[in-house]
Write a structure and sequence with these properties.
Blueprint: H1 15-26, H2 45-65, H3 75-107, H4 109-114, H5 116-119, H6 122-138, H7 140-147, H8 154-172, H9 179-200, H10 208-238, H11 252-278, H12 280-299
Helix pairs in contact: 2-7, 2-8, 3-6, 3-9, 6-8, 8-11, 9-10, 10-11
Enzyme class: transferase
EC number: 2.3.1.-
Keywords: Fatty acid biosynthesis, Fatty acid metabolism, Lipid biosynthesis, Lipid metabolism, Membrane, Transferase, Transmembrane, Transmembrane helix
Amino acid sequence: MSMPTLDRPFGLHLWPYFSSGFTAVTGKSPSDFQMIPGVTPMTTLQGTLVSLASYYFVILGGRQLMKGFPAFKLQTPFIIHNFILTLISGGLLVLFVEQMLPTLWKDGVFVAICHAKGGWTDELVLLYYLNYLTKYLELLDTVFLVLKKKPLTFLHTYHHGATALLCYVELVGQTSVSWVPITLNLTVHVVMYWYYFQSARGIRIWWKRYITILQIIQFVIDIGFIYFASYTYFASTYFPWAPNAGKCMGEEYAAGFGVFIISSYLLLFISFYLTTYNARVPQQYQKIARSLTSKKQKGL
């Protein structure tokens, strides 16, 4: 392995290895891939909506059905599921980094997030598509919760379905800023699925709450980029007198949908964190205070 460089940040060129694996699995070269909405599998709006409607029907109906059955343990399948998603997330992440780091360094942030030659190259489109497909595999997270009779929160069920739809919309809408939320999301998923993998193996990990903090930071950064990309597009298109950096690649409906979904994620995850963790702090302090009071009374 050679020393890391901008073009090879991991010391070796990863794309040829990915290309060989992709060809072995699909029988086609990545250079032959074309993302054609309505032709490429899973790229019709009808198909996507039917898939997500089926997801909600299965988990909500399954939760009712499971009331009459004992919970399944499913430890081994759950371990395998989380390990696979850790590997997939990590693999896609390093491929995205290899593609984007040279562009960021040579052409700058604006080109990277707003130009086709920055954020919408043939290699990136294939990675966007593969990342989109993984969102359907991640829906199994909820299936495991249903079969194990674990609580289903609105945040969990909304987030999983909305993310699959978001990835579809941004893929079809050709938003070149997509790599920002995707790479951040993959980073979070490497940490999160590794946590669940270890937890399923019976290993206690103390930093679970920091996964939520990492998710909140992710959405704050996402909002900074997608708000900027959306603003400069609409300003340059409809209000050229307003300060703007110029056109930004992507369809208007995709920009609006991305802004709404990511903003809702930030609010929901902040609410989840405050409810889940901060609510426990006073109780912990109360236990400590009662313990100290008891010791003092015994000393008296």
